[in-house]
Amino acid sequence: MADVWVVVGLGNPGPGYAGHRHNVGYLVLDELASRLGSGFRAHKSGRADVVEGRLGAPGSAEAPRVVLARPRSYMNEVGGPTKALTTFYKVPVERVVAIHDELDIGFGTLRVKRGGGDNGHNGLKSLRSSLGSGEFYRVRVGIGRPPGRKDPADFVLSDYSGAERKELPFQVDRAADAVESLLEHGLERTQQQFNS
């Protein structure tokens, strides 16, 4: 199983959170699942919904094997279900990709990197704690800073603006492309292409 990647979309489960900025990781995961032509199903661990397949050019034998994972927990507890999956699939932390919202990057941009702190992001904090390391890959999808004096916690748990919703499908598509590139071509090439 050593060639498998675990790609985790960070978000909060349930329809009440679906349109929130904090849930952009789920949106990107949905796009990747549709590229695999597959729907999510419950994992044996009971702690996540997963899609398994090969992500990359259609029919490519070289396309990496991937487990797309949507933890069935709130953002601040995603580490536990993710750790259960990495143990089940025998995946080391350096073959984990977390897709998450990022306040410090403007809406419409993204950054791909490996390692780093959690920058106050509860999902990343939970992953670092449960995986015992921060050396996983991150696809950081920009949501920008809240306007005026709005509390960042309220901002991430609010819906995208009307104008942003028009652009969001393009941003989600681009983030999904970045995940595919990272798995197929590695970090350096992906950063050159996507870290605009």
Automatic annotation (TrEMBL):
Chief location bin: cytoplasm
Catalytic activity entry: an N-acyl-L-alpha-aminoacyl-tRNA + H2O = an N-acyl-L-amino acid + a tRNA + H(+)
One of the record's GO molecular function terms: hydrolase activity
PROSITE patterns documented for this protein: PEPT_TRNA_HYDROL_2 (PS01196)
Site (Stabilizes the basic form of H active site to accept a proton): 101
Subcellular location: Cytoplasm
Binding site for tRNA: 17, 74, 76, 122
Active site (UniProt): 22
EC number: 3.1.1.29
Top EC category: hydrolase
Coiled coil: none
Keywords: Cytoplasm, Hydrolase, RNA-binding, tRNA-binding
Site location (Discriminates between blocked and unblocked aminoacyl-tRNA): 12
Superkingdom field: Bacteria
Function: Hydrolyzes ribosome-free peptidyl-tRNAs (with 1 or more amino acids incorporated), which drop off the ribosome during protein synthesis, or as a result of ribosome stalling. Catalyzes the release of premature peptidyl moieties from peptidyl-tRNA molecules trapped in stalled 50S ribosomal subunits, and thus maintains levels of free tRNAs and 50S ribosomes.
Family the entry assigns: Belongs to the PTH family.
Subunit structure: Monomer.
Protein name: Peptidyl-tRNA hydrolase
Species of the source: Nocardioides nanhaiensis
Gene: pth
